[in-house]
Each structure stands twice: as C-alpha cells, then as structure tokens.
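Morning, I've got a small favour to ask if you have a moment. The fold is given in discrete form, as structure tokens running alongside the sequence. I'd be grateful if you could look everything over and explain what you see. No rush at all, and the record is pasted right below.
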Amino acid sequence: MDLSSLDLKDVCNLKSFSGTVPLFPLSTVVFFPNTLLPLHVFEPRYKQMVKDVSTSERIIGMALLKPGWESNYYGNPEVYDVVGMGRIVSSETFEDGRINIVLYGLK
C-alpha cells in the first residue's frame, strides 16, 4: 500500500467503533495520534491478534509496559492506563507467518 494515498477521513472514522480493542504491549513504545508506527509481528499471540482485527475494525491499542514486566511477560504484565489506538493501514504477511504492519495513530 502506498501510504501517501491514505484517506485520513476513512482511517480516522470511528462511527462503527465497538469500544473494545486488543492491547499490544511493548516496553519501549509510546504511540501518539496522527503518527505512523511500523511493527514487525512475530509472536504467535500477536500474529493472531493482527489476523483477528484485520477482519473487523483493524484497530489495536498500543500499551506501554510498566517496570518489572519481564517477570510476567507471557502472562498478564501490567501496563500504563493510557494507550495509543491505531488502525492498521498497511499489512504484509511473509511465508513463515511473520507480519509487517503500519498503524496510524487515532485521536
């Protein structure tokens, strides 16, 4: 997808938003509105998340992990209360199942 041709009215339209988004927690990423965030998705649980949202609203919440997250990474690590929401505007799946996506930060 050529990101220069994005229709921001369509990308930012939240009229049909269900109010629920899956969280993608990372330790070093803070996601802001009106920015693009490229992600390389390789863990099975997050690959499944991308597949799931790709058939609906294409929205993911990017959450910042709180300190000490390492001890509970594969469980339910704590995240900060404020998250950045983004819509998948580009996606590429590789033969081995890894996925490159680009999120556009919503406001």
